[in-house]
Design a protein that fits this description.
It comes from Collichthys lucidus. One of its GO terms (cellular component) is endoplasmic reticulum. It catalyses: heme b + 3 reduced [NADPH--hemoprotein reductase] + 3 O2 = biliverdin IXalpha + CO + Fe(2+) + 3 oxidized [NADPH--hemoprotein reductase] + 3 H2O + H(+). There is one protein chain. This protein is mainly alpha-helical and 274 residues long. The protein folds into 2 domains: 232 residues, Heme oxygenase-like (Heme Oxygenase, Chain A), CATH 1.20.910; 32 residues. The chain is 74% helix and 0% strand. It contains 13 helices and no strands. α8 runs antiparallel to α11.
């Protein structure tokens, strides 16, 4: 179904630029990605340290695969125009952030969900079989990160209580002096890529796939976080002493007093809120 939809859209937009075509065919997927629980946490300014650390782990695997395949295909006629390692490469920045949060042995502590493995596998597959499809992934990832980098950096810094820029290297693009001008250059280079009709259709399909893979990664990361939170809550309950548990269960007077204390605390918080 997705393939037929993308092909139809491609036929309707044969006279438009590739960057605009990708923007149009991925519009719905873009909205869905922004509304995943993980991305909503960023938008609300409520991202947690654990969310950010796990996201960095997945980004490391994804960018490792993407940048290795871009490097390997840097002379390919469809890849060379959008190959900007000095300006866009993220791998070294992510490694720096991971070392900050996990220590020097961070490589031994990385945990990623199955969706991240699938994403990396897809990047390596097309790097070998259809290098032109890398254009879709590079555009989706790099320009997305470049567009929201500064805003997301501030949100993350405030949310997890970072005092400086350490741990936020991923969002910094020191090789890009003007994000807006660079994005114009990147789109221009991308639109100059010469593709046969079948190749162009494939790139558009791959752009939709890129968003879907990102959505799967975000959802799987949130599931990992939910499992971790549940385990933490269970451990917290387990660590209660039998005497404390029994006292709460078997003393009606104590339960009533605790209820009153909670009610008073709730009223107090409500008053201070106004």
């Amino acid at each position: 179904m997705e393939t037929k939809k993308t092909q139809a859209t491609s036929e309707q937009m044969t006279d438009t630029d590739l960057s605009e075509q990708i923007k149009k065919v991925t519009k719905d997927s873009h909205v869905r990605a922004e509304n995943t629980e993980l991305m909503l946490s960023f938008q609300r300014g409520q991202v947690t340290l654990q969310q950010y650390k796990l996201l960095l782990c997945s980004l490391y695997e994804i960018y490792q695969a993407l940048e290795e395949e871009l490097d390997r295909n840097s002379n390919h006629p469809n890849v060379a125009p959008i190959y900007f390692p000095a300006e866009l490469a993220r791998l070294e920045a992510i490694e720096k952030d991971l070392e900050y949060f996990y220590g020097r042995d961070w490589r031994e502590k990385i945990v990623v969900p199955a969706a991240t493995k699938r994403y990396s596998h897809r990047l390596r597959q097309i790097g070998k079989e259809n290098p032109e499809f890398l254009v879709a992934h590079a555009y989706t990832r790099y320009l997305g990160d470049l567009s929201g980098g500064q805003v997301l950096s501030r949100i993350t810094q405030k949310s997890i209580g970072l005092k400086g820029s350490e741990g936020l290297s991923f969002f910094a693009f020191p090789g890009v002096t003007s994000p807006n001008l660079f994005k114009q250059l990147y789109r221009s280079r991308m639109n100059s890529v010469e593709l046969m009709e079948e190749q162009r259709t494939g790139v558009l399909e791959e752009a939709v796939r890129a968003f879907e893979l990102n959505i799967q990664v975000f959802n799987d990361l949130q599931k990992m976080l939910d499992v971790t939170d549940n385990k933490s809550q269970n451990r917290s309950l387990t660590h209660s002493t039998p005497a404390q548990t029994l006292q709460i269960q078997t003393t009606p007077l104590l339960r009533m007093l605790l209820g009153l204390l909670v009610a008073v605390a709730t009223v107090s918080v409500g008053l201070y809120a106004f």
